[in-house]
Amino acid sequence: EAQVTQNPRYLITVTGKKLTVTCSQNMNHEYMSWYRQDPGLGLRQIYYSMNVEVTDKGDVPEGYKVSRKEKRNFPLILESPSPNQTSLYFCASSPSVGQGGGRGYTFGSGTRLTVV
Amino acid sequence: GESVGLHLPTLSVQEGDNSIINCAYSNSASDYFIWYKQESGKGPQFIIDIRSNMDKRQGQRVTVLLNKTVKHLSLQIAATQPGDSAVYFCAEKPPQGAQKLVFGQGTRLTINP
After folding, report:
1. Which of B94, B32, B27 is nearest to A58 (CA)?
2. Per-residue pLDDT tens for A8-27?
């Protein structure tokens, strides 16, 4: 089944403790992206990657890092999480940047992160 | 800055009625628009899309209308069913090489029996 898999689904952590949220897609998509979803603010892009070893900042990149060493994986790293990073996170992938990026967006099921 | 918003945060309709969810976008140069459906506990799922050179597109029970003059997008769902209960997001894709979608805040659609 074609899908984007995120882990973990739920995570409670303490301020300052480094964590990684994994994202993997099995569709051979070039484009991957991370979003956070907050009440009243909708979905906001954190980082995106157009291909292996190519990453760039989205709208809200502060406090996050990403890497794209393999085409299928796009982990989101919080080096020193803070309470304002408590949110619902979604990873998404798409076949090609040139294909509009919308129809081909497949989202993961989300990771609910709480930083205390 | 760019923003996509929805006129109403919540919408309740009777089962079997038609639903209309509205969206206003701000970037007149955006060339591609998408509606997503997000059910509780799940990620957004693609419903229907439309390019800026069109003003209407129909799918199965859904129709998207685009009015570029007033920068307005709407999603019409015919004969709503309980399974249509969800949050609906519109999204726009700005044209200048931006590799992202700009999402609205979402409208929660509730179907009353």
Report:
1. B94
2. 999 999 999 999 999 999 99
